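Translate structure to sequence.
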């Protein structure tokens, strides 16, 4: 199945200059605990923003319409949402959708679970999550993150699960 995972500030901001707008080690740990040993799918800009940090992930599917984009040995190029949906049918494991904006939105009909970190602060940046329709999902878990000397901003980890009456799209 597909699971989406993102963090946003109070205004829905998710990115700045190709990177995250904040430093919140708790959230990075949370993200990596789900994704490091999994298959993750992300847009070309998010992938490029990760730079050498992408190397520690087991497998990355990079969405791009560019022909001949060079990626690291642990990554492969995917050219459309339909190709990604077909890929998932061939592998017997979960795929984590890791942004950015367009992929979160376009993958929503295929997504079973959303992990959303809500950061109770306001940052500046250039990339927003935009309109995400949660009506087909139910909030089943909300866990408060720890605020301490390295995690300065209050944050909660939310888990949203697709309601049974709204089956996922498969094609
Ligand atoms: N806070 C978070 O949880 C979070 C999560 C993810 C990303 N981010 C941040 O968000 C920013 C990047 O996000 P973004 O939305 O600007 O860009 P992005 O989604 O990472 O990359 C956009 C690119 O992905 C490719 N793409 C997207 N949809 C596609 C599709 N349906 N088919 C084929 N290719 C597709 C295109 O690549 P080509 O132009 O090469 O064709 C497009 O230009 C960064 O700052 C990043 O750090 C934050």
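Result:
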């Amino acid at each position: 199945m597909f699971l989406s995972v993102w963090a946003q500030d109070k205004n829905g901001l998710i990115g700045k200059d190709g990177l995250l707008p904040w430093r919140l080690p708790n959230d990075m740990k949370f993200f990596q605990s789900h994704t490091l040993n999994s298959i993750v799918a992300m847009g070309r800009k998010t992938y490029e923003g990760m730079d050498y940090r992408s190397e520690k992930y087991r497998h990355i599917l990079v969405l791009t319409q560019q022909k001949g984009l060079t990626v690291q040995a642990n990554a492969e190029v995917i050219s459309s949402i339909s190709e990604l949906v077909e890929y998932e049918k061939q592998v017997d494991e979960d795929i984590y959708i890791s942004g950015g904006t367009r992929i979160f939105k376009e993958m929503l009909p295929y997504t079973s679970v959303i992990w959303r970190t809500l950061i109770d602060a306001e940052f500046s940046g250039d990339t927003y999550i935009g309109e995400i329709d949660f009506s087909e999902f139910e909030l089943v878990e909300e866990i408060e993150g720890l605020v301490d000397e390295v995690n300065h901003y209050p944050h909660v980890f939310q888990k949203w699960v697709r309601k049974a009456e709204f089956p996922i799209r498969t094609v």
